[in-house]
């Protein structure tokens, strides 16, 4: 499983595991977890870097409507996963 280091707004660095990725409306999203164990917290990150940028820049999806829409897509992609 691929890992990334995500830096929060307050400078904390989190090691996250990429579970799935998708592209919606020209924007890339990744579903990540904070552990590779069965019990983990899941987050949806959105790529806000411009096209042609050498490195992706991700932020947590905080808008409730956007989060719910993207979460539904990931749930369909991972049908056997419970996101409760």
Features:
single chain, 84 residues, alpha+beta, 5-stranded antiparallel beta sheet
Structure explained in plain terms:
The chain is α+β, with helices and mostly antiparallel strands. It has one domain (3-77). Helices cover 17% and strands 39% of the residues. The protein has one helix at residues 64-77, and strands at residues 3-7, 13-24, 27-33, 42-47, 58-60. Strand 2 (13-24) and strand 3 form a beta hairpin.
In which order are the strands of the major sheet placed?
1-2-3-4-5
The shape is: globular
Give a short account of the largest sheet: 5 strands, antiparallel
Q: How many domains, in number, for the residues?
A: 1
* C-alpha-based Rg, rounded: 13 Å
Beta content comes to: 35-45%
Number of continuous helical runs: 1
What is the mean predicted local confidence, pLDDT?
Answer: 88
Which structural class fits the helix and strand makeup?
alpha+beta
Unreliable residue stretches: none
Give the H and E element order: EEEEEH
Q: Termini separation (Å)? A: 22 Å
Percent of residues in helices: 10-25%
Number of strands: 5
